[in-house]
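Researcher: Sequence recovery benchmark, item below. Answer with residues only.
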């Protein structure tokens, strides 16, 4: 193997590794978003059964509390679930 070929192979390997790391970060981000959505969905169901709200009304309630308290919707939803 020539040195120029080796340098090219190393550059390609490093680029592929960086691509893989970026995909891994993206996957973790999506997993976090899915987990947050599941918690919000559970909290919506609690609000719907507890207060007779529609799904849209329950979502709006969580969203408003999130905005007013400047906390992520997931935190608001988790608080609702703890109060259950």
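Model:
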């Amino acid at each position: 193997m020539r040195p120029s070929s080796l340098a090219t192979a190393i550059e390609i390997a490093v680029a592929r590794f960086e691509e893989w790391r970026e995909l891994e970060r993206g996957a973790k981000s999506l997993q976090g978003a899915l987990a947050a959505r599941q918690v919000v969905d559970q909290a919506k169901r609690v609000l719907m059964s507890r207060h007779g709200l529609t799904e849209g009304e329950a979502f709006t309630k969580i969203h408003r509390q999130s905005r007013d308290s400047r906390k992520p919707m997931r935190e608001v939803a988790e608080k609702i679930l703890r109060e259950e």
